[in-house]
Amino acid sequence: MVDNKGVLSERFKPVALLYLTGIVINFITRLVLLCVSFADLSLGLKNIAGIFFIGLFYDICFLSFVSIPFILIAWLTNDLLFKNPWKKGMIVLFIIGIILSVIRNPIPKEFDKKLPWVFTGLVVLLFGIYLLLASKTDAYRHRWRTRGMKVFFFIVLFLFVFNIISEYFFWDEFGSRYNFIAVDYLIYTNEVVGNIRESYPIGWIIAGVLLVTLLIFLLIRKRLDGWAFARPGFSRRSLLALGLLAVPVLVYFLINNRIKNFSDNDYVNQLAGNGVYEFGAAFWNNDLDFYRFYKTVPDREALTEVRKQLLERSPTDSFFNNDTFSIERMVSYPGPEKRMNVVLISIESFSAGFMGTFGNTQNITPYLDSLSRQSIFFNKCYATGTRTVRGLEVLSLAIPPIPGQSIVRRPNNDSLFTIGAVLRERGYTTQFLYGGYSSFDNMGPYFSANGYEVIDRSALKPEEIHYANIWGVADEDMFTLALKQFDKNAATGKPFFAQIMTVSNHRPYTYPEGRIDISPKLQKREGAVKYTDYCIGNFLKQAAAKPWFANTVFVIVADHCASAAGKTDLPVTGYHIPLFIYSPANLQPQVVDHMVSQIDVVPTILGLLNKSYRSKFFGQDLLRMPAGKDRAFISTYSGLGYLRDSQLIVQKPPLKVEQQRPDFSSGTATKMKMNDSLYRQALSYYQLAEKIFKSGGYKK
């Protein structure tokens, strides 16, 4: 027992232990991730120093927030507080209620309904414990304060250790610390938790984490014994407590997550960060204001530049009104329309590198390899983003990616100018089919708000499902449902446009037994890829027997790559996807070997149908684009890339722009002197996309 006069250091020892254990555990986390990605790192002295010293800085920033409850307990816990506990408790609860109402507003909309209730529930629980213990004797209170602190410390320690495992798996999947993807996944806890349970031996993992936590706790628990008996004066406690509490305040207002970006190697920059701090930064910055975080040109100059680029690629287009802040124009084709059906298949996480056509020797895409010789096959197509919602966005809107959240997940995303809107005006049935529950990632609400009929796994009867995991039914079941739906569509006499989103090529990589020669028990990505290939082949073979097949165009494209991680912010190899257009009765096979962009898929489909239409699309018809006008857009949620002439313009916050020469084989890049023409094109496209969407100009 400590002397009643106490000492300040003893009173705040839990805070010091928190910082010490947190720094050590985060150091171990960083070391583990460094070893995992060792082959991709550039480990000069500068980079090593940056990884660990900048990393230590961010660890302290993160721990300053975690330490807040420990500081408050050490500062405010005294016997006076426990006199008349019910009265003082009501005051405390009232103050907490005010705080919750204040912090409610900055929380992004999709979190708004969940977090205040979670906070309130935790506060009420802890407050109940406080009231229970408050009326006990002095010795009893001190004993339980110590025990309570140990329980609290054990829980935090468990979370620290568990985070090592979590960050390892996230890094393995995405090549990054926690980021915008982790924030998105927090909302869809059912799918995410289910995916974790189906992908990993979660019981053994938790048991291992508990064991490690217990061992660490046993080493330090005695150092938590005396803090409650140390009684320095309130003024002395206040001085230290307020100093410690000032740290997270300063971090919140003065520090951002960009200090870590000191190296040309993105893996090095990621290692220099702190995963949980990065999560918080992504949470609060889900909508990046382009005009605040990116370099800009005058809006009118951006409009003029984009119009110029559009006309260079399609000289027969004509803008309606030069005085209107819009790229709306007439896209004209000679001759009658071809009222063909269109089936757009977007494949989950399908990198070009999976295919034998691009050198893969595993024979996991036999059908798609053969289809590449029967289709118009684009062998240098690049995805715009790294998430399914980005793929769905561009395959419906043909718009460059806006920084922050995908349009699919944004407010005011209804009644937009989509391919569905264009074809519905021409009498088409428009549908979106998904093997999971379409509430995930806001897919169903988005497509419904834009005039599509949404058909998901709820349309299947239990006996029609051969297999399902947390993401949805097996692709073969979704394709079987699609064939039945297309038969119904054809019976109406109206042409149809349908987009099918596959799900099977996703962790946990499980699928029905007996379909391919890789057992689903192995839970290997190669098996999931081959199963998806099998399902697409089986679907097209069955479709070929249908009376509507001859009058149908099938477009097959990935939503994004399996991984976009690399040594640079935007490695081009992380965006290379296959694109097929298949209609044996209507199209001659050919290989298009110049660079094309996912943003151009929608206008190309409309061009194949020979449709003249009013367009607001930023994309253009690939099959009538003049030679030498190749360009593509690639992005993360904050990094915006513009590819042209084997050069890449990268925009990123805050107000940074650089030009690189990417290596299309390795994904690395070297910095170059800025080309003013490419610079203005890149800024203009992204700035105008932001301006038009947010001003409502992309409504139909």
UniProtKB/TrEMBL annotation:
<feature type="transmembrane region" description="Helical">
    <location>
        <begin position="151"/>
        <end position="171"/>
    </location>
</feature>
<keyword id="KW-0472">Membrane</keyword>
<keyword id="KW-1133">Transmembrane helix</keyword>
<keyword id="KW-0812">Transmembrane</keyword>
<feature type="domain" description="Sulfatase N-terminal">
    <location>
        <begin position="341"/>
        <end position="610"/>
    </location>
</feature>
<feature type="transmembrane region" description="Helical">
    <location>
        <begin position="239"/>
        <end position="255"/>
    </location>
</feature>
<keyword id="KW-1003">Cell membrane</keyword>
<feature type="transmembrane region" description="Helical">
    <location>
        <begin position="89"/>
        <end position="107"/>
    </location>
</feature>
<dbReference type="InterPro" id="IPR000917">
    <property type="entry name" value="Sulfatase_N"/>
</dbReference>
<dbReference type="InterPro" id="IPR017850">
    <property type="entry name" value="Alkaline_phosphatase_core_sf"/>
</dbReference>
<feature type="transmembrane region" description="Helical">
    <location>
        <begin position="202"/>
        <end position="219"/>
    </location>
</feature>
<dbReference type="Pfam" id="PF00884">
    <property type="entry name" value="Sulfatase"/>
</dbReference>
<feature type="transmembrane region" description="Helical">
    <location>
        <begin position="51"/>
        <end position="77"/>
    </location>
</feature>
<protein>
    <submittedName>
        <fullName>LTA synthase family protein</fullName>
    </submittedName>
</protein>
<feature type="transmembrane region" description="Helical">
    <location>
        <begin position="16"/>
        <end position="39"/>
    </location>
</feature>
<dbReference type="InterPro" id="IPR012160">
    <property type="entry name" value="LtaS-like"/>
</dbReference>
<feature type="transmembrane region" description="Helical">
    <location>
        <begin position="119"/>
        <end position="139"/>
    </location>
</feature>
<dbReference type="InterPro" id="IPR050448">
    <property type="entry name" value="OpgB/LTA_synthase_biosynth"/>
</dbReference>
